[in-house]
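Figure 2 data, in text form.
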Amino acid sequence: MASAIVIGATVDGLVAAHYLARAGHRVLVLDERSSASHSSTVGWVPAPIARDLALEQHGLRIERVGPWLAAPLEAGGHLELYQDIARSVESIRRVSNEDAQKWPSFCARMAAAARVLESLYTAPPPDPLTDDRGELWQMAKWAFGTRRAGPQTVVDVLRFLPMPVADLLDDWFESAALKGALGAMAVMHQRQGPRASGSTFGLLHHHVGSPLGVFRPARSNIVQVLERRPGIEIRRNAQVAQIQVSGGRVVGVVLSGGEEISAALVVSSEHPRRALLDQLDTKWLDPALVRALRNVRARGVVARVTLVLDAAFDQPNLVIAPSLDYVQRAHDDGKYGRVAEQPWFVVSAHRVEPAYGERAAAATHRLEVHLQCAPYALRDDQGNDDRWDDSLREAIAGFVVQKLREQQPAITNSVRSISVEAPADLQAREGWYEGQAYDADLALDQALWMRPVPALARYRTPIEGLYLCGPAMHPGGGIAGAAGMNAAQEILRNR
C-alpha cells in the first residue's frame, strides 16, 4: 500500500517521487501513458538533484554539442556560437567587429544576472508578505548574496527582467543575424514577440545553469534515468479521474476504470487546472481561486516537425530567425490565431544508430524542428474558430523542407519520413497543457511567488495533503526537475 501517490511520470513528478522515497515514503507513480518516454528532456538539471539522487551513477547524460547555434547569413555561411567564448568571438567577427568585441562582456553580464535567478530557482519561492522569521531570514540571505554580486549585477537584474529583449539586443549589437537568433531563444514557447515587455526574462531563464555564452537549454536523459532508478513504483495506463477528499484532506484517487487507491499524500505534476478543476470537486476551493486558475495563461504556440533522413544534416543546431523583425512578425500572426506565414524555427539533429545486427549504413538521422508561431487555438480571417487539418500540416512540412534545402540542397533526396505535430498533439503525447511546454506562460506576472497564482506558489493547495509540482509551478519549465525537488522539500518540511 502506497503512503504517497504522484500523478504523472514527468521529470518533476519523478524527481518528487524519488525525494519522497528517500524520506521513507512508499511512492506509487500513476501515469496515463502506455509506455515510458524515450525523448530527451530539455532544460538544466540542477546540481542538487543530480547529487541527491546520484543521477550520474545511474547513467545521466547531458547533451551539449557545438556550435549550440548556427544562424544562416545573407552573404552565405553561418554565424556560429560555441561554449568557447573565443570561438564565438571569431565567428561574430565575420559579421561585425564591434559585436565581436562586445560579446564577452555581454555574456559575463547575462551570466551574473542568471546566477541571481539560479539562487531563487533551487528553493521554494520566497513569500514577500510572510511574517515567518525563518523565511524572512532566507530572503535576507538571498538579498545579501545578490548585493555581494556587485552593484552592476543588481542594476542589471532590475533593468533586464522587465525589458523587451529587442531593446536589450539593440543596445548591445548591430548584427541582424545575431539579434534575431538570440531574440528567438528569448521567446521560445512564449506567445510574445521580442518587442514585448519582459521578454528578456525568457533569455535569462534559458541561461540559468548553462555555460557562459550559451542561451539554449541542454538536453538530457534524466527522465529515463529516473524511471530506471529503483525506489518507486510506476503504473502505466493509469489515468486519474478523481482526487478524493474527506473533511478537507486528501484520502486518495479514483482511476478512470473505477479503481480506488488510498493515500494521505497526493502530489500532482499535471497542470493545476486539471488537478484542481477537473479531478477535484471545486466545492473544496474558494471561488476566487477557481477564477484565478481559469485565468492562468497557458497558450501553446509551437508545432514540432520531425524528419528522418538517410544522410547527416550539416548544421545540427540551425536557427532560422534572420532578424528581430522576422521573429516579431511571426508572433504578430500567432497572436491573432494564425500560423505564421514565415515562422521561425530551431533544429535539433540526432544520429539514430542501427539496431543490433543491422549494417552501419542503416543508421539514420533525426531532425526535430521547433517551429513558432503555430497557435493551439486557430482563428480564421473573420475571427471564427478554425482547426488544424492535413493541408495545414503539409504546408508547414513544405515550408520547413524548403528552408532546410536552402542550407543543404541534397536534403530533398534523403528524407525518409516527415511528420508534423500540432500543439494539441503535443498535449496528448507530451502532456503539455494546450501545447504549452511550461504548462503556464513564463511571464513576470506568472513567476516566482506568483507562479501560477500566489495562492498556490508554495506547492500547497487548500486541501491538506494535496500538492502540485509540475512546470506550471515555480521555477517553471526548462529547469528539469526543480519544481519536483522544491515541492518535495516543502512537503517534507510540513509533515
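Caption note: The mean pLDDT is 92.
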